Amino acid sequence: MGKPAIIVDSPLDRSVYQRGLDGHARVHVSGKITGKPRVNDPRVTCAVTNPGGKAVHAGSYPVTARTGRFDGEITLPAGGWYRIRLMIDDGTGNAGTPPATATMATATIDHVGAGEVFIVAGQSNAANSGTTRFIPRSDLISTRTANGWQHAADPQPMATNDGGSPWPSMADALVETLHVPIGIIVIAVGGTAVGSWMPRRHESSPGSWPRWLARLFPKRYNFRRLEWAIKAVGRDGARAILWHQGESDSIARTSAETYAKRLLSVIHGSWDIAGWNIPWLVARASFHTTPARTDMEAVAAGQERVVDNKTIFQGPTTDDLVGEPWRAPDGVHFNRAGLVEHGNRWARAIISTFFTGERGTRPGIPREFHGNP
Questions:
Q1: Domains of the chain (ranges plus CATH)?
Q2: What is the pTM of this model?
């Protein structure tokens, strides 16, 4: 069977887990032992050290004899990066001690964070359409890829286009205030109208949005992206979904009533998938160079209609960031200054929504939030 080895499924390197109201995050530890350890009842020992190298957790998990799999959970205080070391144990608490030393195996995950996680959806100005790519100043910022996590340098791997985004700037601003790791999952798709994000039971008919959009983005394509992101983090696994979209609906002359109805169907669909009412922050984003002002105002009004300040909150406005100081030569997408300001506005909206306000909690300590059904 060969020498034993530990294959780790979770946690992945540079993963960030959402902290709860108690300031702690629950981290699922799972994987599989391959080969055959020369011990009767192998277990996997888990040792966790904090950024200062101090041991903060120790435990062990039984290994299923037939499959070689192990599962467990650890609770970590907000912070990072934590280092997790897994070792095969002989069942008596002796990991790697004689006579089993030659047959023992270890696996190490060097970067595991407990902090704040955000899912980002929308169209091009939430994707990689800016003129300047950014690399976060802080190492405590990760972005989700198809198979894991990485430092959140642009372009964001699960969003369309290959330019810059506002999310490194947002995350840096959040780290400076909250002092915890930040995880982002950016699934925005350029050129999309709100109807293309709707789940199947609410999806709009092909004639209700532009023909070019129907060709580019088949029905449910975008909602499947949202579903994937929600399932990737699990229940209670993200602080909020951030929505920045509207330009395509201004072009399509979507009414305020129709926009609000379609966006609510996306939000309610996300709650069905998540199993709880994950909060949404909805930006006021309707500006494009071609629509009439009244058409843009209708979309912005639709965005404001969905806000209930219970589970759906007002995000930042970017409709005032127009012209050469903020936009690229195309007049639609953001330049370097615009991306930074866009990101900073999201950070301020997140701080004011979840970490300050009527309950008087100080920044860094999330206020109580009743998001469950």
A1: 5-113 (2.60.40.10), 116-354 (3.40.50.1110)
A2: 0.90
